[in-house]
Write a structure and sequence with these properties.
Layout: H1 3-15, H2 20-46, E1 49-51, E2 57-59
Antiparallel strand pairs: 1-2
Helix pairs in contact: 1-2
């Protein structure tokens, strides 16, 4: 994921504005970033287990 490019486009957007091509690129990069973030979070949540007082491990329920 190119977070540096996302930030670069945001800075340019605030300072001088973006071309149509840059707006499309920014939207695409943001969507890719959000997708990767969600997948990473889901993976982390899927790996969580709850250990009860008897030491039994149970996966975190959805």
């Amino acid at each position: 994921m190119n977070l540096d490019r996302i930030n670069e486009l945001y800075k340019k957007q605030v300072e001088v504005g973006l071309t149509e091509e840059e707006k499309v690129e920014q939207t695409k990069l943001r969507k890719e970033y959000i997708k990767a973030f969600r997948n990473n979070l889901k993976s982390q949540l899927d790996s969580i287990v709850i250990v009860d007082e008897n030491g039994n491990k149970k996966p975190l329920k959805k």
